[in-house]
What we know:
The chain is an alpha/beta fold. It has a single domain, classed as Aldolase class I (TIM Barrel, Alpha-Beta Barrel), CATH 3.20.20. Helix content is 41%, strand content 12%. The protein has helices spanning 22-42, 56-61, 76-79, 81-93, 116-128, 155-164, 178-186, 197-201, 205-213, 218-221; strands at residues 4-5, 18-19, 47-51, 100-105, 133-137, 169-172, 192-194. A 5-stranded parallel sheet has the order 3-4-5-6-7. The protein has a two-stranded parallel sheet with strand order 1-2. Strand 4 (100-105), helix 5 and strand 5 form a beta-alpha-beta unit. The mean pLDDT is 97. It binds flavin mononucleotide. The site of flavin mononucleotide (FMN) has 12 residues, from helix 8.
Amino acid sequence: WTALGPSPLAYRGYAMPAQASAADLGRIVADFAAATRRAAEAGFDVVEIHAGHGYLLHQFLSPRANRRTDRYGGGFDNRVRLLLEVVDAVRGAWPAGRPLLVRVSATDWVDGGWTPEETVDLARLLHEHGVDLLDVSTGGLDPDQRIPVGPGYQVPFARQVRDKAVLPVGAVGLITDPDQAEAVLGEGSADVVLLGREALRDPSWPLRAAARLEPATLRDRYPRQYLRAV
Ligand SMILES: Cc1cc2nc3c(=O)[nH]c(=O)nc-3n(C[C@H](O)[C@H](O)[C@H](O)COP(=O)(O)O)c2cc1C
């Protein structure tokens, strides 16, 4: 099994991918649509297309990974083409009333990579193509990335998209505390906060946040069996 990529460039230490042909890309777009139909049939409420973290669609966006000279590589319009084709196919296969999210890496954290400014331009296009929310993450494409990890380290990227594009955005990355999450929303940096590791550590985090931020509502939120312990 040989992995496909935009160009035959290996992530350091990993196998060399083959350059995807136009026929491969057509099949991949159709596969996204088929997966969406299965998700709809299975009853999922939301789908999110992953176009970040070094996955295939991100590789097409980034000039560090995409060295193609056909209509899927080169300038911005060509590098975003595959993602927009996937978005159109998924939107067409997904019930109109159900949200469609896209996750991107707003920066590759390396010179010559995908940029926050391109992310803003992409966000405007995604909105036109029926995407309901942009989930703004970063990195994952290039082993030379240097990420200044700290509390809320990706929030400024969500803010930049929200300030300059019209679609709702989600912020993610070391958002761990209810007051911190509320501040991200209150200062207008994002419309939604997303939790990864903190939700793994504490699956009841939303209840903990409600206890901190909206104590009066707790009795409506907890399972009745737990109320004696609230
Ligand atoms: C063990 C682990 C697995 C992850 N797997 C995925 C994944 O499959 N897809 C994805 O988009 N992000 C994945 N992430 C990234 C998280 O979704 C999230 O963006 C990141 O951890 C930053 O948010 P946090 O600080 O709230 O965890 C993973 C993170 C961890 C720690």
